Amino acid sequence: MRRSILGFLLSGLVGIAYTAASVAQKGPAAPDYPTKPIRIIVPQSPGASTDITARLVAQGLNEAFRQPVIVDNRPGSSGIAGTELVARAAPDGYTLMVVASSFSINPALGRKLPYDSVRDFTTVSQLSKFPNMLAAHPSAPVKTLQDVIALARAKPGQLSYASAGLATGTHMTAELLRFMTGIDILHVPYKGGGPALTAAMGGQTQLIVATSVGLLTHVRAGKLRAIAVTSAKRSAAAPDIPTFAESGVPGYEHEPWNGMFGPAGIPKAILARVNAEVVRVLNSPAARKVLEGDGADVVGSTPEQFSIVLKAEIAKWTKVAKAAGIKAE
Fold first, then answer.
1. How do strand 186-189 and strand 160-163 relate by DSSP bridges?
2. Which of 35, 159, 225, 229 is deepest in the core (most CB within 10 A)?
């Protein structure tokens, strides 16, 4: 009798220990996440590439988590106000954010931000990336990047290019070229990509820097002449257009990206689950069709890989901004 009671107690203790070990392996938060709606803040206007990407991911997460995943657009103040909301949110996995690579440019400009771009956020995944493009008005006497460099050296400050505005990603693209080649070209900033495109196609500037997605249609229509793309390899959407690196500027690489973040301190179990589902959604045929159709490359990185990219981008743009004397307005 005593032996049977002792055996019962021992088996019970073994069962308790097994259960505790099982919970420890799964993590305390993972099994019951999520239990309420998730909000994805996008610090840009509806229709921006970040917004489109965020909505693709939100739809997939909604189906996977069986909870509403809501995209909350918070444009204005260069995306800083919306980004601050995420930095101050509870790190419980219910507030996330999708931003563009300008997130890595803001801290490089000497701008006083209400958050630290590395310390106050958890990297979830780099979602996609796409090249910028340098293009010329058909009347401009340049066909290659070497033509642009030669003309800029022969006539310093006379060759002009349009961008979407001061300290935007398109402006920094040209500044990186200046930094690496020492050329002097005139920056003409506009209030957004639309006005810059109109000016370039109207011949008000000889050159324009914009996303390849925004320029390809006009290049194919003969309204602009493609010079080169900024990615490390040629774009699958335009394989006939060379890169800056193969056009005589070795080491040049800049690919704007969209990425997902959360507040600092998200539990590892929740972060792992969100990352796994985000990567699964991005690699689905439906998401790939939309993103690749717009000239973007699907990434779907780990949090650690994205953290390395973010820190490298901030360091690069800090060096470029300092050399060019660029500061936030």
1. parallel
2. 229
Kindly tell me the number of DSSP H helices and DSSP E strands found in the chain. 11, 11
Q: How far apart are CA 279 and CA 282, in angstroms?
A: 5
Condensed to tens digits (0 to 9), the pLDDT of residues 174-216 reads 999 999 999 999 999 998 888 999 999 999 999 999 988 889 8
Do residues 182 and 156 make contact, with C-beta atoms less than 8 angstroms apart? no
> Dihedral angle at the C-alpha atoms of 80, 83, 88, 91, nearest 10 degrees?
-160
Its pTM stands at: 0.81
Backbone angles phi, psi at 40, to 5 degrees: -110, 110
What are the beta bridge partners of residue 71? 40
Cβ count within 10 A of residue 75 = 15
pLDDT, tens only, 88-133: 999 999 999 999 998 999 999 888 899 999 999 999 999 999 899 9
